[in-house]
């Protein structure tokens, strides 16, 4: 679908360079670079977490724990006590 593109590859690369991010041309239809883009994003997230001192463990006080309802005492699953 190269003929139907709205933004050129060069413009996409310019924007990526401007924001300091990687640029991938992807296609869900042909499965072009989808896996590679996902892996690159996930790798960048882990590397950033490590550089911020998290060690990539995910120990972050802002993370929601779906197994515990914060509105209850003792970690029960009932809405309100």
Report a brief summary of the structure.
Helix content is 36%, strand content 0%. The protein is built from two helices and no strands.
Protein described:
By secondary structure, the chain is mainly alpha-helical. The chain has a domain at 29-56. The chain is 36% helix and 0% strand. It contains two helices and no strands. It has helices at residues 9-19, 34-51. The longest helix is centred in the middle third of the chain and has 18 residues, at 34-51. The model has no long low-confidence stretch (mean pLDDT 79).
The rounded distance between the terminal residues' Cα atoms is: 57 Å
Number of helical stretches of at least 4 residues: 2
Tell me roughly what share of residues is in helical segments.
25-40%
Give the number of DSSP strands.
Answer: 0
Strand and helix order? HH
Return residue spans where pLDDT drops below 50 for at least 5 consecutive residues.
Answer: none
The largest sheet is:
none
């Amino acid at each position: 679908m190269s003929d139907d593109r709205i933004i050129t590859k060069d413009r996409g690369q310019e924007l990526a360079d401007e924001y300091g991010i990687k640029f991938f041309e992807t296609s869900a239809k042909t499965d072009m670079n989808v896996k590679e883009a996902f892996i690159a994003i996930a790798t960048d997230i882990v590397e950033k977490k490590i550089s911020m001192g998290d060690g990539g463990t995910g120990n972050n006080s802002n993370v929601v724990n779906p197994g515990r309802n914060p509105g209850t005492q003792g970690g029960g699953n009932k809405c309100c006590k």
